[in-house]
Amino acid sequence: MTPAPHPGCAVILLPAANPAALPASAAPALRTADALYATAGVEESVALAAGAKAAPEPAELLAEAARGAVVLLAVARTERAAVALADAGAAVIEPELPPLLHAVAVMDTLRSPGGCPWDAEQTHDSLRQYLIEETYELLDAIETRDRPALLEELGDVLLQVLFHARLAAEDADEPFDIDDVAEELVDKLVGRHPHVFADAERIHTAERQQHRWEELKQQEKQRESVVDGVALGQPAVALAAKLASRTERADLPAELFPRGDDVGERLFRAVAEAKRAGAEPEGELRAAARAFADAVRAAEAAARADGADPAQLDAEGWRRYWP
Predict the structure, then answer these.
(1) pLDDT tens digits for range 25-67
(2) At what angle do helices 263-276 and 281-305 cross, to 10 degrees?
(3) Where do the domains of the chain lie?
(4) Fold designation for 99-191
């Protein structure tokens, strides 16, 4: 029968992404170790830096572990020495995932067999409504300056990104994963900021950077029209503002905006002219709508304070209590 290992014995699993980084939770075991070994899978430079010797055969390792605190560095729980020491009862210290990678791992677990049945049934299409809802909840947190809500809603939007990336990784024909998403983003950011990441013309204003961004995007995507790439499915106010902004960079004059008198043309014209005047129509309209909602609540509260039922107010009653 194999003797029980010393209480200070441990197997320290090194993170695959950065095998030179020892988990912080391994510090106590390393400080009290009588002997430090590394399996054959650990890079020699990492073992030397840690002061670890090559691990002996499992039987010899277990015999030494019965006499003192033996700590073993390993890259996988399945390596022979790691299996022997862990199965004998030594503590196993897992690498600590950064929170972002932990979130990816949680999403993978939820979507995998044995995970969450609801998550397993979702598709890109079924998740669309949640992406829209979470985006608007994030906007609400920004507009109300609610910091705790901002933290939470950013996480909810991140979940949508992780979820869609996981679904994409399962595609049989054109799979990609969250790493591909991140790589695509990095390439885009670096490519569209040559003044930062390459020896290119220096840009000193945000306005010039925005103009240069659009020029690079046009070249990159080989668009035939200045309005190519504008998401036509976005809310109408944001869409009109985007079209006004895009066409302004092409020097399209405001006199060519729709000039009819129907509601849609008048609304488009108002939004487009506001955007070109430097306003943010979506934000301005939302602020006005919020102010109106607050006024309605204030009038209702005033009516209640006066003993009136807000649900029974007529036009004159609304005028009486309007703030």
Answers:
(1) 899 999 999 999 999 999 999 999 999 999 999 999 999 999 9
(2) 110
(3) 10-93, 99-191, 227-279, 282-321
(4) Helix Hairpins (1.10.287)
